[in-house]
Amino acid sequence: MDQIINHATISSDEIIRPTRLEIDLNILSDNFRAIKNHVGNAKMMPILKANAYGHGLVRVAQLMEKLGADSVGVAVLEEGILLRQNGIKIPVLVLGGIWGNQIPHFLKYDLTITASSIEKLKQIDEIATSMKIKAKVHLKIDTGMERIGVHYYSAENLLRESLKCKNLEVEGIFSHFANSDNKELDYTRLQLERFFEVLRFYEKHSLQFPIRHISKSGSILQMPEANLDMVRPGLLLYGVYPSLEISHTIEVKPASTWKSLVVYFKVIKANHPVGYGLTWQCDHDVRSVTIPVGYGDGYFRSMSHKAEVLLRGKRYPVIGRISMDQIVVNIEKDSAYNGDEIILFGSDGTNKISVEELAEWAGTIPYEVLTNINTRVPRVYLNSDR
Ligand SMILES: *Cc1c(COP(=O)(O)O)cnc(C)c1O
């Protein structure tokens, strides 16, 4: 989980491996502020699940806390515990479903629980009573995702029941959009309308609303009316847009750059195939460089024969199959030396390869490209005085 795990280091700040994910904390801060400015009075709950979309859970949480985030969201209990063990003090909502024997840990570490059914709500209240701790919960309403939560059409019972629980505080109520990364927003509007219907319960009984939240990156960009009391930006915070088709109403920049170094140079003779399965060869001699990164780091094998990298400001194709630990790049007649920097995604100032492009090559979405970069790749923080 931790960003340092798996890395032999010579000293505390020298990392031996030439492959690295550089994370610019200034850019992350700018992105946070750009989103914050856009949503006005709504509270901010940056989403830090899956190692902060690959950017390093604890380091990103520290920055968010410093920037004044009202809370953060993670997916699983262990991510929440890790934040507390590393001194994060702001509220942490664990967004995912819970298992009964996890509840004492939530309470012990002061983590906010997602209550997604009446049964779970009662279980939380019981355990909180026996531990003499007041549990903090957010009620989860399913408005059309069919994953977890009480259906909008039967949510009233959950809300009613929550008022009877003596040892829990319903701090929030939320739902999740299933299709907000598209331009077409009919279903998203329907989900928002369903959520409003559920929330009428509080008005009907002259009760104060808990913190109401439903919006994520796609809808933060496209549907300001869904901001409500709080927004939950994930991907956008890291400077990546959920899809190419939606309008970029907030200007963000990619916070991470995936780099490596040339470790080998050679000439590949005509008709000499490259890599496993002998899938690539050329009818003339070419110069090539080998880079120590592969699908074992999260550089998808499915990008074989499509991927390109940046070297000295120019794009070159990855040739042959992507191996577990190495790739070969065709530089034709150009020159390169051991130790030259390669950019797998990111920008060298003028030229750029985007996370979105890698997603395209791999037949997936930008979310998976970022979360797939595994712990073997050291995370290096720029502007880490932040
Ligand atoms: C992942 C997640 C988000 C963030 O989604 P993005 O599209 O990355 O902004 C928000 N809310 C919930 C419940 C999530 O699981």
Can you give a write-up of this model?
This protein is α/β, with parallel strands linked by helices. The protein has two domains: 41-238, Alpha-Beta Barrel (TIM Barrel); 256-382, Lyase, Ornithine Decarboxylase, Chain A, domain 1, CATH 2.40.37.10. The chain is 28% helix and 24% strand. The protein contains eleven helices and 21 strands. Strands 3, 13, 14, 15, 16, 17, 18, 19, 20 and 21 form a ten-stranded mixed sheet that branches. Helix 1 crosses helix 3 (57-67) and helix 10 crosses helix 11. The two termini are 22 Å apart. Bound molecules: pyridoxal-5'-phosphate (PLP). Pyridoxal-5'-phosphate binds at residues 47, 49, 95, 176, 216-218, 232-236, 242.
Please render the helix and strand layout as text:
Elements: E1 9-11, E2 14-15, E3 20-24, H1 25-39, E4 43-44, H2 49-53, H3 57-67, E5 72-74, H4 77-85, E6 92-94, H5 103-108, E7 112-115, H6 118-131, E8 135-142, E9 150-151, H7 155-164, E10 168-174, H8 186-204, E11 211-215, H9 217-222, E12 230-231, E13 256-261, E14 264-268, E15 286-291, E16 308-311, E17 314-319, E18 327-332, E19 341-347, E20 352-353, H10 355-362, H11 366-372, E21 379-382
Parallel strand pairs: 3-21, 4-12, 5-6, 6-7, 7-8, 8-9, 8-10, 10-11, 11-12
Antiparallel strand pairs: 1-2, 3-13, 13-19, 14-15, 15-18, 16-17, 16-19, 17-18, 19-20
Helix pairs in contact: 1-3, 10-11
Residues 47, 49, 95, 176, 216-218, 232-236, 242 line the site of pyridoxal-5'-phosphate.
